[in-house]
Amino acid sequence: MTDPPLVLPDKKSLHEFGDNMYGNNDSFDLQAYLTRGVEQIVSDAVKATLKDPKESLFMAKFAAASKAASKRRRAAEDAGEHIPSFLIASITSKCNLHCAGCYSRCSHATTDTEPVSQLSSEEWLRIFDEADRLGISFILLAGGEPMLHRSVIEAAGQKENILFPIFTNGTFMDERYFALFDRCRNLIPIMSIEGEKETTDRRRGEGIYDRLVSGMDELCRRGLIFGASVTVTTENLGEVTSDAFLKTLSDRGCKAVIFVEFVPVTEDTEGLAPGDREREILCEELARLRRDRPEMVYVSFPGDEKSAGGCVAAGRGFFHINSHGGAEPCPFSPYSDVNVKQTSLREALRSPLFTALRDGVLLLDDHAGEHLTVNQGVIGSSPVGGVFKKAVSICTSSSVGRATDS
Ligand code: SF4
Question: Phi-psi bin for 71: left (phi > 0), alpha (psi -120 to 50), beta?
C-alpha cells in the first residue's frame, strides 16, 4: 500500500524544541515546529546514509534544498500565508491487493476498475513544480498502488529538491523501477509490511511477505535506499517494535521505519486501533529505538498532536490531493471543495473548507474523538478522527457542499 503515512516530528525532538515554540504572546509557532521536525528527519537521514557515497551526496544536496524551502515557507508565514511542509499525493485509484481493513477501499478511493479522469503525469508535474516554488520539501506518493502509475513517478524523479517517499505494497518492483530509483535518488520506496511473515500475509495476502523481502533484498544488493511502513494495531504493537523484527529490516538494508496508527473503517476493526496506553508505549519504544538502533530513522504518524498544537491536516502541516485532483484535509477525510485541475495549490490552500478548518478551533485539539468514515457515519475513536466529523459538518451546513472531486 499506500497506507498514508506522514513524516512528522517525533515527541522527543518536539519536547526538546518545545520552549522555542511559543513567542512572547504564547502563540504557537507551527512553522517553526514543522521546520524543526523536517530538519530532524533530514539530519537523521543524512546520518543513516553516510556509508553510501551516492546516497549521502544526494542527501547532503537535499538537506541544503530543504533548508532553502524552509526559508521560503518562513517568508510566506511572515507575510501572512501558511505553507505546509508536506503534501500527500494519491496518484492512482487502482490497486492489485485487497488488504484487510483498507480505509481506501472502504471509501471507494481505491477500486479494481480502470481509473477514470485521474490526473495525468503532466498535471502532477505542474503540481510538483508549484510545490517546489512554495517550499514544500516532501511529497508522499500513495494510491491505490502508486507504482501502477509509472509516468507520475518518473515525473517526480525530475524534481530533485523534493523527496518523494513512495508508499508501495512492493509487488511491482521491476528492472525499470530499480534503474529509475538508481538514477533519481529523491524517489524512495517505502514498503508496507505488517510485521513478520504470518502477520503480513494475514492482512495483505498469501505470499506478499516473500515478495516484499525479495524486493528489499534486490534494492539492498543494488545499494538503493528504502524504508518500511508499518500499520500499528493493538495486535502487532509488540511485534513491530521488537528488536527481532527491526533487526531483520535493518539487516536487509532498510533505512527508515514509519509507524502509522491503524484507523478503523468498520465497527468490527475498532478494537485494532491503538488507544492512549498503546500510543504511550509506542512513544517510549520510539525513544528507545532512536537511542539503541540509530542505524534507521523512526517516524510515527500522527505523532504527538498535542505538541503540534492540534491536528496538522487541512494544510496546517500537510494536505492531501486525491487521484482526481480533489484537495482534501487528509486521506482519511475524503471531502473537498476545490480541485487542483482548476486551481493552483496556493488557491487550494485557501479553499473555504481548509480555511474554516484551520482558522476555526476545529484543529486545535489532539484527536481523541470520533472518526468519520465515508458513507458509514461515525464510528469508534481514532487518533486522526475528530476533525473529519467536524469538517463534514462544515461542508454540509454551509455553502461549501459535499466534495466532488471527479
Ligand atoms: S488494498 Fe491496496 S490500497 Fe489498500 S492497503 Fe492494500 S495495498 Fe494499500
Answer: alpha
